[in-house]
Each structure stands twice: as C-alpha cells, then as structure tokens.
TrEMBL record:
<dbReference type="GO" id="GO:0000160">
    <property type="term" value="P:phosphorelay signal transduction system"/>
</dbReference>
<keyword id="KW-0418">Kinase</keyword>
<keyword id="KW-0808">Transferase</keyword>
<feature type="domain" description="Histidine kinase">
    <location>
        <begin position="247"/>
        <end position="448"/>
    </location>
</feature>
<dbReference type="InterPro" id="IPR050428">
    <property type="entry name" value="TCS_sensor_his_kinase"/>
</dbReference>
<protein>
    <recommendedName>
        <fullName>histidine kinase</fullName>
        <ecNumber>2.7.13.3</ecNumber>
    </recommendedName>
</protein>
<keyword id="KW-0472">Membrane</keyword>
<feature type="transmembrane region" description="Helical">
    <location>
        <begin position="168"/>
        <end position="191"/>
    </location>
</feature>
<dbReference type="InterPro" id="IPR003594">
    <property type="entry name" value="HATPase_dom"/>
</dbReference>
<keyword id="KW-1133">Transmembrane helix</keyword>
<dbReference type="GO" id="GO:0004673">
    <property type="term" value="F:protein histidine kinase activity"/>
</dbReference>
<keyword id="KW-0812">Transmembrane</keyword>
<dbReference type="InterPro" id="IPR004358">
    <property type="entry name" value="Sig_transdc_His_kin-like_C"/>
</dbReference>
<dbReference type="InterPro" id="IPR005467">
    <property type="entry name" value="His_kinase_dom"/>
</dbReference>
<keyword id="KW-0597">Phosphoprotein</keyword>
<dbReference type="Pfam" id="PF02518">
    <property type="entry name" value="HATPase_c"/>
</dbReference>
<dbReference type="InterPro" id="IPR036890">
    <property type="entry name" value="HATPase_C_sf"/>
</dbReference>
Length: 453
C-alpha cells in the first residue's frame, strides 16, 4: 500500500480538525442564539403577562372579566401564536386566540408573585413556551388567588434559529475553506526546510556542494549537522583508503620492476621465451593494479570534481589521431561547449580514451561522437562503423578481459575500466548494436553552472 506523504497527512488532519471545529462552533453559536432568543421571548411574555393582569376587573355580576387585553393582534386571531389564560375561583378567562382550548398547566404550587416557565402543548399540537404566575387579587377584587399564563408558539423561535443557521452556514463554509488553505500554506512553509535538505543532499551527491550548510531552522539543524558530520567522516575514510591505495601502488611497483629487470637479464642470456612470459605476466599485473588504483581514485573524488567534455575529448583525439588506427578515421563530433560532468578530468579522459581507442581499432572509416544532457545527466555516445558484434555477445564483451577480436592487440581491459569509472561515478556504460558498427553510451551525472571555486 502506498504511503501518503507527510504533507498530505498533515493537510488531511488539519482539514478534518478545521471542519470539526467549525461545525462544533456553528452548533454552539446556534445553541447560544436559541438561548438568547428564548430569554428575549420570556422577557416579552412577562411584559405581556403584566398587561393581561392589569386588565382584570370584577364585573357587576361579581365575576372576573378582562377589560383590557394586550395590543398584539395575535391574541385576537384564533390559533394566532400568542395566548393567555387566567384560572380563578370564578372560572376560566382566556384569549380569543385559544378559542375553546385550555392550556394544560402542570400541577404546580407557586407563592404569590412567583413565575414558572413551562414547555407545553398548544391548541394545534404545536409546542408552546409558557410563563405562569400566581397572583392574589387585591381586596377590592375579592382577594382570591388565580394562575395567569401567557404562552407563545415555539415554532417561531425554531424558525428564527433555523434562519440564523442558514445565514451562518455560508460564512462557516468560507471560513472552513480559508482555514484549510491557510493550514496548507503553513504546512508548505513549515516543510520547506525538508525540501532544502533534499536539494542540498542532491547537490552534495552531484558534486555541486560539499556540505549541507548551517542556514536551516533550529528544529532541523541538528539533523543537518549529523549529516554533515557523516559526510566529513566519509571523506576521512576515503582519504585513508586513498593513502592505503597509494601505499599499495608503491609497494607493488618495486617487485614489478624487479620482475621486469629479471626478464631483461633472462633475455640477455638468450632465454627470450621465458623473458617474454615474465614481461607479459608483469604487464598484466601492472594493468590490474592501475585499474584498481583508478577505481579508488574515482570513488574518492568523483562527486567533488568537474570536467568539461569538449576539452577532455580534444585531448584524447590529439593522441589517438597520431596512431596508425586513428589517423585514417573520419572523426565526427557533436559536443556542445561548456557541457560538464561530475568527474575528475583525468578519470573522464581515461574513460573516453578507452572508448575512443576501441572505436578507432574496429571502425572501417568513420567514428561519430555526440554528447547530450538530459535529466541531470550527460550521455556521451561513441559510435563506429565497424563490423559490430551480435546483441547476444554484448554482455560477455563487458566482462573483465573480454575482447571482440581475439586476433588483434589489446588486453581487453579498456571497456571494463571505462565501466568501472562510470559505476564509481554513479553512471553507467552500455553497448548497443548499430547499423553498421557498435555504439557505446557513457552516461555520467551532469554538472550545471561554472566550476566551483
């Protein structure tokens, strides 16, 4: 299963968090709005209850009557949404809006002047918000007690709350999107040092830099310092390896020279066959030692060097054109000026020399050399018009000491050395059949910009 990137995971977590937070906040605001509207409604109901009680009088017949009702027209319209009723000893008084319905008050005992708030059922089954007050009439009205109630249809409050939610929803959506985008920007800015580290590591790998540097935020600076320390330790280890390789070279040179001297002495004594065998063995040993020393040298400085292809190629061709095999060839070059690779000039010259000498040896008339840069790499192609080799023999030809022409001269190490140099530089050498001839493609890491100071 593909793992999501850190950026995507943080963005998803932030988006979910923002969405949940905005949703909860919206619900909380809706609840606060509902509570505020309910409090305002209760205040209005209390005022209207005062008006209802102020209009209670005793008729000449002795019964209580309502002489002045609140001015709100909903009290006069049947099932209008506002209702009042008074339960007294002499009977029940109620607003026209109740028609013949009696608000079902709970069994409740209130002290004089006390108020209770109830959630009741209205004449059409709608929920009511009611406020009830117990009042003792003054002596002129008989001094008896009564329960006065004013109620309103709670549907109106619910409609006001729903309208508030509808008005709030677009702003909540806009705020959610804005916060998610702000979180994405924050993540992008916060993760920028990680992209810088990746770019710096790529620069170190390609040879454009030696260390990551110290211009990083404090949170990632310890990691950068550890990486730089690792690079420094690697450099020291490679330097020690180079020293050991140099010691090995000097240690082998003297015995090889002694062998060659002994071969000369044998040749002087007339034992030319034995001398030739010793010289062949010593020469092969020297070539192998030179090859291993070249690999060690490339491994140490491959990412810390820069070599332009055109000058290295010109130097190789000046030498090859003076040989019998290279003098009669038509050399076709297509190499842009300034094109460079992450390699030491000597290593590049050695790899190109092996490929060009091989092409000159097998070409009939023409050798074409091109160089193309693409995707931080440079591909150098050396194509001859010789007899070529079958595709099924290319793998065997790349083996150490293998030769396409077993009758000609050469040790068979040229292509292998060029391949080792390419691999040490994290490149590759491949052979491809051409029509006619053989094409060798040397792909090496490219270097952009001028040489480093």
């Amino acid at each position: 299963m593909r793992r999501l990137s850190l950026r995507v995971r943080l963005a998803c977590a932030g988006a979910v968090t923002v969405a949940v937070a905005i949703t909860l906040s919206s619900l909380g605001l809706a609840a606060l709005f509902d509570a505020h509207v309910t409090r305002r409604a209760l205040v209005e109901l209390s005022v209207q209850l005062d008006q209802v009680l102020a209009g209670v009088e005793r008729a000449p017949s002795g019964a209580l009557e309502q002489t002045a009702t609140p001015a709100d027209p909903r009290f006069q319209r049947p099932y209008g949404g506002l209702y009042w009723q008074i339960a007294a000893e002499g009977g029940m008084l109620r607003s026209r809006s109740l028609w013949d319905y009696e608000i079902p008050l709970p069994v409740d005992e209130l002290r004089d002047g006390a108020e209770h708030v109830h959630e009741l059922s209205g004449p059409a089954g709608q929920p009511l918000l009611a406020i009830e007050r117990s009042v003792v009439l003054p002596r002129r009205l008989g001094g008896s007690g009564m329960r006065a109630t004013v109620a309103m249809d709670r549907t109106e409050l619910a409609a006001a709350r729903n309208g508030f939610i509808s008005d709030l929803a677009p702003y909540s959506v806009v705020l959610t999107v804005a916060l998610i985008l702000a979180g994405w920007v924050q993540i992008a800015v916060g993760l920028r040092p990680l992209r810088m580290i990746r770019q710096r590591v790529a620069d170190v790998r390609s040879g454009r830099a030696r260390r990551l540097g110290a211009d990083f935020p404090a949170e990632v600076l310890p990691l950068v310092r550890e990486v730089d320390a690792l690079l420094a330790a690697r450099g020291e280890e490679v330097a020690r390896a180079r020293t050991r390789a140099g010691d090995l070279a000097h240690g082998l040179k003297t015995p090889l020279q002694a062998l060659l001297g002994e071969a000369g002495r044998l040749r002087a004594e007339g034992r030319a066959g034995v001398a030739a065998d010793i010289e062949a063995i010593a020469g092969a040993m020297r070539r192998h030692v030179d090859r291993e020393l070249a690999r060690t040298r490339v491994a140490m400085r491959g990412h810390e060097a820069r070599a332009e292809i055109a000058p290295a190629l010109a130097g190789v061709l000046r030498v090859v054109r003076r040989t019998g095999e290279g003098a009669g060839r038509d050399w076709q070059l297509e190499v842009p000026a300034g094109l460079a690779v992450a390699a030491d000039p000597d290593d590049l010259t050695e790899a190109l020399g092996a490929l060009i000498e091989n092409a000159a040896r097998h070409a009939r008339r023409r050798v074409r050399i091109t160089a193309v840069a693409a995707e931080r790499a440079v591909t150098i192609s050396v194509c001859d018009d010789g007899p070529g080799i079958p595709a099924d023999r290319i793998g065997a030809l790349m083996a150490r000491g293998a030769r396409a022409d077993t009758q000609g001269q050469g040790s068979g190490l040229g292509l292998a050395i060029a391949r080792d140099i390419a691999e040490a530089l994290e490149g590759e050498l491949t052979l491809h059949p051409a029509t006619p001839g053989l094409e060798a493609r040397l792909r090496l890491p490219g270097v952009c910009g001028p040489p480093r100071q």
